[in-house]
Fold:
Amino acid sequence: MSTLRPGRLLAALLLLAVPALGAIVVACGSGGGEPASSASPAASGPISVTDDSGVEVVLDQPADAIVSLAPANTEIAYAIGAGDRMVAGTSYDDYPEEAKALPKIGDFANPNVEKIASFSPDLVLAASGIQDKLRAKLESLGMSVYVIDPTTYDEVVATILNVGRLAGAEDGAQAVADAMAAAREEVRAAVAGLPAASTFLEIYSEPLMTAGQGTFIDDMITIAGGENIGATAGSGFPNFSTEVLVKVDPAVYIADSGSMSEPGDISERPGFAELTAVKQGRVYVIDDNLIARPGPRLADGLRRLLEYIHPEAQGAQ
Structure:
């Protein structure tokens, strides 16, 4: 089975979906909810944090002008109360509603460097994978870049706190982080003592793609009391053989749905009617924004995974 590192999933989906590309699975999507209220800027820097690529990012003072290169990054900025410091985003930015009105620097896969520079940002919030080569270009033009590429739920929380420091929105970031941590502990308490339920999570249907080791989705399945079958296929986001899927026979089957993926009637797929999950009515479809966009709504996704994987635990929350 071929395997993709977490940051490489986007490039693979581009190859799979072109020309009918609507949005990107990880760091994109659409959905509802309310961002946190705006927080007052923190005291002037210098500020030093380490991003998800291991690079130290230093600002002399909190950023006043922020450009986001991924919808998830935009969502984080608004959620922590730094929306008033956003000066541009991508054509895929759709959450919260205010983000749709931001000036655009191109799409996620092809942001325009000259356009980014025209906004004179203090901080650029980038992603990994398909955007890896952008960092050097942006930094050569004097821009500070923070790369967001978390591999666990807690790393998403840590990233939100770091962005809060860089944006001078520490109070708002802490409030979001506290809410996410509370959701994690709530779910952990609900599944304590329960046997892990074998779970398969479909990222993409043709070819069949799942979330493997070293991804925050794998981590979330584990937190929610599942045994992630996708982890047996390796790290990142590997393709998964239908024949192997039928052999391992998951108790729970979850497929994400969004502009990049529409699973349809899973029970009608060749061989799938024999799956225990299908026979027992344990097939679920989840909004991809709740599990594939590394931001505040992962808390909602974690609760939804608990509902699917251990419905008997709902009363324990």
